[in-house]
Amino acid sequence: QKIQFLYFIENSLQPSDMPALTITKELLEKRAAAVRTGGKGSVRRTVKAPHKASGDDKKVQGTLKKLGVAPINEIDEAYFIRGDGSAFFFANPKVQASMQSQCFVVSGNYETKTPAEMLPKLAADAQAATKAAI
User: Fold this and answer.
1) In angstroms, rounded to a whole number, what is the distance separating the alpha carbons of residues 61 and 74?
2) Could you read off the pLDDT of 84-131 as tens digits, one per residue?
3) Half-sphere exposure of residue 91: CA atoms within 13 angstroms, side-chain side
4) Is 75 helix (H, G, I), strand (E, B) or coil?
């Protein structure tokens, strides 16, 4: 069996100008199999819906709520220096703290920096802080 489709774009093309598109049963089955996400008899979807991995995040938020952390605003950056000299650099981190339990939570995207990359920035920040204190 063959199915022929003729399509026109707002009558701008005449039937003689437009080639006929021939679609066979095999071609239709191949296209239908491409959009099926499961086995035979499953629902066809063009995009497989991603599962939300919010189970761990909910547990973390529940634990933080039990600790009674409160957000601390106006923190522009944070460094966590590791034993090998490299550091985790957080730009605009979300910082939360609980003074009763002496707990600080820093979250956000971070970069790993070497000492050579972070020393000029730390020196400039220290110099600016001493000028402001004077």
Assistant:
1) 21
2) 988 899 999 999 998 888 888 998 899 999 988 888 888 888 888 888
3) 5
4) coil
The rounded distance, in Å, linking the Cα atoms of 5 and 48 is 29
- Distance, in Å, from the CA atom of 96 to the CA atom of 61, rounded to the nearest integer, reads 12
Task: Please state, in angstroms and rounded to a whole number, the distance separating the CA atoms of residues 29 and 35.
Answer: 10
Tokens representing residue 79 in the block: 């460094």
Largest CA distance in the chain: 89
| Alpha carbons 134 and 122: distance in angstroms, whole number | 19
Task: Specify which residues 104 forms β-bridges with.
Answer: 97
Strand 77-81 versus strand 94-98 pairing type: unpaired
Query: The pTM is what?
Result: 0.51
The C-alpha atoms of residue 13 and residue 36 are separated, in whole angstroms, by: 35
